[in-house]
Amino acid sequence: MTETEKFFHEAIGQGAEGVVIKDAASPYQAGHRGWHWIKFKKEYEKELADTFDVVIIGALYGKGARAGTFGSVLVAAFDPTTNKYYSFTKVGAGLTEELLRRLPPLLKPYQIPAKHRLVDAQITMDVWFDPVKVIEVTGADLTVSPVHRVAHNRIKAGGIALRFPRFLRFRDDKDPEQATTVREIWQMYRSHTRRGSVHSIKRTALPP
């Protein structure tokens, strides 16, 4: 391991998001870095070793290149003790153009006029769904979010959310009750907290 890598891992271990690598002779230019100043963040190095099986509960319509389909989906973790689904993150990365074309007709059979009674979410969605379809996602790390609801009764600042989530695949082999549970995510969050690798989002920040 190089000295740079050692310093990077020390910074991550202390709760930092990453480091900036710069040419010592380069001048500061506001709004511009080029290749003289390079950000190296945790999510650039690797993702969480764990993946999550989560349930699609809502969607937002896309804009720009994603106009005419969904831009992202809202997913939730299951809590068998309450029989409810708690919002965990919004997923847009990893959705290919082909999948984006298929997504609206694929999810249409599960579309409902309002948020499902078993869903706990505080985000406004363009479309709501029955909590039926399970997908597998990964991400950079876990964070505390003021808007998401996983383990919200255990954390004063909000709930646990997944940072920089990315879609991996549909899990048609799993029922929604087999999704990753709130308890499992809470235990992972506690483990990461002890290692100093969990980030908090201020209440004024946008949800992940």
Give a quick set of tags describing it.
208 residues; alpha+beta; OB fold (Dihydrolipoamide Acetyltransferase, E2P); 8-stranded mixed beta sheet; 3-stranded mixed beta sheet; 4 helices; 32% strand
Q: How would you explain this protein's 3D organization?
A:
With 208 residues, this protein is α+β, with helices and mostly antiparallel strands. It has two domains: 3-44, no CATH class; 52-200, OB fold (Dihydrolipoamide Acetyltransferase, E2P) (Beta Barrel). Helix content is 19%, strand content 32%. The protein is built from four helices and 13 strands. The strands form three sheets. Strands 3, 4, 5, 6, 7, 8, 9 and 12 form an eight-stranded mixed beta sheet that branches. It has a three-stranded mixed beta sheet with strand order 11-10-13, with helices on one face. The protein has a two-stranded antiparallel sheet with strand order 1-2. Strand 4 and strand 5 (84-91) form a beta hairpin. The radius of gyration is 19 Å and the shape is globular. Residues 197-208 have low confidence and may be disordered.
| Gyration radius over CA | 19 Å
Q: Helix- and strand-based class?
A: alpha+beta
Helicity range: 10-25%
Name of the CATH class of the largest domain: Mainly Beta
Element string (H = helix, E = strand): HEEHEEEHEEEEEEEHE
Give the domain tally.
Answer: 2
Please describe the biggest sheet, giving its number of strands, its sense, and whether it closes into a barrel: 8 strands, mixed
List the total number of helices. 4
Percent strand equals 25-35%
CATH topology of the largest domain: OB fold (Dihydrolipoamide Acetyltransferase, E2P)
**Span between N and C termini?**
32 Å
CATH superfamily of the largest domain: Nucleic acid-binding proteins
Mean pLDDT: 82
The low-confidence parts are: 197-208
Number of strands: 13
The CATH architecture assignment of the largest domain turns out to be Beta Barrel
The general outline is: globular
